[in-house]
Design brief:
Blueprint: E1 7-10, E2 13-16, E3 23-29, E4 32-37, E5 59-63, E6 66-70, E7 74-78, E8 84-88, E9 93-96, H1 111-119, E10 136-141, E11 146-150, E12 164-167, E13 185-186, E14 189-194, E15 197-203, E16 209-212, E17 220-225, E18 230-235, H2 240-251, E19 264-266, H3 275-287, E20 294-297, H4 318-327, E21 331-336, E22 340-341, H5 347-354, E23 368-371, E24 374-377, H6 384-398, E25 405-407, E26 424-427, E27 430-433, H7 434-437, H8 441-457, E28 463-465, E29 468-469, E30 477-479, H9 487-502, E31 508-509, E32 511-512, H10 521-530, E33 537-539, H11 557-585, E34 590-591, H12 593-596, E35 610-612, E36 616-618, E37 628-633, E38 637-640, E39 646-648, E40 651-656, E41 664-667, E42 670-674, E43 688-694, E44 698-704, E45 718-725, E46 728-736, E47 744-748, E48 753-759, E49 764-766
Parallel strand pairs: 13-29, 19-20, 19-33, 20-21, 21-25, 25-28, 28-30, 30-31, 32-33, 43-47
Antiparallel strand pairs: 1-2, 2-3, 3-4, 4-18, 5-6, 6-7, 7-8, 8-9, 10-17, 11-14, 12-16, 14-15, 15-18, 16-17, 22-24, 23-24, 26-27, 34-35, 35-36, 36-41, 37-40, 38-39, 38-41, 42-43, 44-45, 45-46, 47-48, 48-49
Helix pairs in contact: 6-8, 10-11
The structure holds alpha-D-glucopyranose (GLC).
Alpha-D-glucopyranose (GLC) binds near residues 335, 408, 481, 482 and 540.
Length: about 775
Amino acid sequence: MSTLPKYQQNQQTITFDYPHRPLQLSILTPSIIRVFANRGETGQSYAIEGDKQQPTDYDLTVVAHQYVLTTSDLTVKLDADGHVDVYDAAGHALITDFRGERHLLDKGVDKVHQKLVEAEGHSVTDVTIDDHASYYQVVKELATDEHLYGLGDKTGYLDKRGFEYDNWNVDYPDPQLEILPNIYKSIPVLLGLKNGHPYGLFFDNPYKSHLDLGKESDHYYFYSAVAGNLDYYILGGATLKAIVTNYTYLTGRTPLPQKWTLGYQQSRWGYSASQNEVQAIADNLREKDLPCDAIHFDVDYMRGYRVFTWDRAKYADPAKFVAHLKQQGFKVIPIIDPGVKQDPDYAIYQAGLQHDYFVKTPAGETYINKVWPGNSAFPDFGRPAVRHWWAQNTKILTDTGVAGIWNDMNEPASFDGEIPLDTVFSDQNTPATHQKMHNVYGHNMAQATYAGLKEHQGTRPFVITRAAYAGTQKYSTVWTGDNRSMWPHLQMMIPQLCNLGLSGFSFAGTDIGGFASDSSAELLTRWIEAAIFSPLLRNHAAMGTRHQEPWSFGEPTLSIYRRYLKLRYRFIPFLYDLFADETQTGLPIMRPLVLNYPDDQRVRDLNDEFMVGDSLLVAPIVQKSQTKRLVYLPAGDWIDFWNNQEYRGKQDVVVDAPLDKLPLFVKKGTVLPWGPAVSYISDEPDTTMTFKLYGNTTSYQHYQDNGTDFAYQDGHYNRYTISVTDGQVQVHLTHHGFEPVYQTVQLDLADHQLLLHYDAATASYQA
Ligand code: GLC
C-alpha cells in the first residue's frame, strides 16, 4: 500500500504533495470546498468574483490511512492514491471517486461501417478517450438512487441522469431535442440527490468539457475537459435549496430587476425593418387591450447590420420614436450582436481597429468571419479595455432612450465556419486562445453591456443574453435561443427553465409560440398559458414564419391570450417579491417540485409541472389536443385557483383543462399579493395593495420599492408582514424606507373582504 503524501497547510488551503501532481483543498465556507490541481493554466475565474472565503473552522486528521478533513457540513477523505470522497455531516456519501476503469460504450461499429452510416447523414459519436496531454477526466460513483440536475440550458429532461452533454457554446439550427449535447450556454454545475442526500459540484473550467451522467455506465458519471486546470467546488448543505443558495453565494445572484421587466414583451425578427410596422404592433397591443411593457427591435433597425447604428432611412429620429412608444407605455429593447462590420467608413469598426480591440489570427491580423453584416471583426471581450469600450458604445443606444439591450450571437456564432481554436483572444490582459475564451465570450459581453447600462441609465440594467457561462446571472437575464414552434419545445420549456433556475439563472424565458417553424392557434395558446409564470415573458418569432402575435389566429386565441396576460400582471407583485427573496437566497422563481419536496420520490423527474416559489403549483397542458390531465400534488393541502376546490396532497388528481384553462393550484397557507389590473407597469407607485388569503394561519413578507433604481440598496424600500392567525389578519410595516407606503391594504379572505387603512401617526394598519 502506498503511503499518504506530505502536505502543507496555509490557513484554509491544504496542499497535498501527491507525486504526480499536488492537489489542493481550500475551505471557503463550512459547505464549500474547492478542489484544485494546477495543470499549467493561469488566470482567474470568470464565474466567481471577489473573495468568497470565510473564516471557517476545520479539522484535518488521519484515520485508517486516509486524510480526513471535516467542517461542520462536510467531510472530505483523501487516500494515498489521490481519491477524493465527500460525505455530509451525518456521514452519508455524496461524491465519491469511482475506483474502476471506464468501460466505453460498445456502439457495434468499426471505422468502415461508421463511414457507411455517416454517408446517409447519421452521426456516430466518438467513444474513444482523448489522449492529449491536457485532457483529464474526473469519474464519480453513481448510486442506484441518484438524480442529477442543473447544467443550465441543456435540452431534455429535468433529471439529467442517463444523458451526456458538452459544455461548448454553439448556435446550431437543429431542433433542440434531448439528443443535442449542447446549445448556447455552458453552466457546468450539477446538483445531485444521492440516496436522497443533496450535494452540488461546480466545475469551473472554461475549456470545452463533457459530462456523461450515467449514459456510459449506471455505476459512474464523469466530467472531462480538453484542457485547463482541475478546478471544482464541492457544495454541501442540508437541503437542495441550501445547495442552490451556496452555489449562488459562490457565483452570484440575479440582481433585483426593474419591475416592468416582469411585464409582457413582444418581439419578431422583422418588425424593426419599418417604424410603421413597430407602431402598428404597439397600436394593436393597446387597441386590443393586451398588457405589454416592451417591444424588441431585432437586427433590422440597424444600418446594414452595423451595431450601435440606427438606419436613418427607416428611423428619421430614433429618440423621438422611442419617446413616443414610451408614452404609449412601451419600452424599447434593441438587439446588439458582437460582430462589427468590416467597413473602413464605420466609426465602431474604425475605433476597434485603431485601439486594437478585435481578436486576431495567430499571424497578428484582425480575424474576420461572417455574420449578419457580412465580413465582421469580433471584439476581444476578455480584455477590460474592450469591455469598457463596449460599455461606452451602449451610450449611443441609451441616448435614444432604449430601456435595455438584448445580446445575441455571442457564442460567438459565425456563418463562415467555426472560428479557429487558435485565434488570439485575451484572458484579461494576457493573450490566450479562442479555445480558452470561447465559453466566456458571451459572459464578458453581457458584463460589458451591464456596466454600460448601469453607468448611462442609473437604473437596474436589463440585459438579455443568449450565450452565458456560470455566473453570467449577475449581469444578464437569458432566453433559451432559437427553439421551434413545436410541442416538444413547449414540453421542454419546463425542465429547461427549471434547470436554469437551479443553476443560478432565475431570470429566464423561452421564445413564446416558438421561434422557428410555424406556430398554430392551439400551440400558441398553450404556450402563453404554460409560460405565464416564466420570469422573462416574451413572444418572439423568426422572420419568414407564420405570424404569432396574440391576434394572429383570431378568436378564441386572442381572448385567451389576453386573459393570461392580464393574469400575469396581477401576479407581478408576487413575482417581484420572489425576486427580492432570490437576491438573498438564490432560489429561483420557477422551480421544479423536487426543489421544494426533495424527499418525495414522485417529483424527482417530474417534467410537466412546476412551482412558482413555494406556494403555486402549475400543471400546464403541453400535449396537443389534451383537455384533461393528471396532476400530482405533493404533501400539503391545495386549493384550485379557479374554483377554490380543496385537495389533499400526496395524490394524483384529474383536472379538466379545456383550451382556455391553465391548471393552477395554491398551497393552503398562502398569502398572495394581487396587483392592480394595468396595461403596463408605470413609474407611479402603488398606493394600495390586495392580498388574497388561502388558509387560516400563515404569514408572508411583502417587498416594495420604486421598482427601477438602486435606492433600495440604501434602505429605500418597505417591507410588510401579513400575518394570519386563525383567520385574524394583521398587517405590519416592518421596514419603512420608501414613500408612499400603501394607504390601504385589501385582504381577500375565503368568504369576505377586509380593508385596512394606514394610520401615519401610529405607523399601523387599522380597519
Ligand atoms: C438569432 C437569434 C434570434 C434573432 C435572430 C436575428 O437567431 O437567436 O432571436 O431573431 O438571430 O437577429
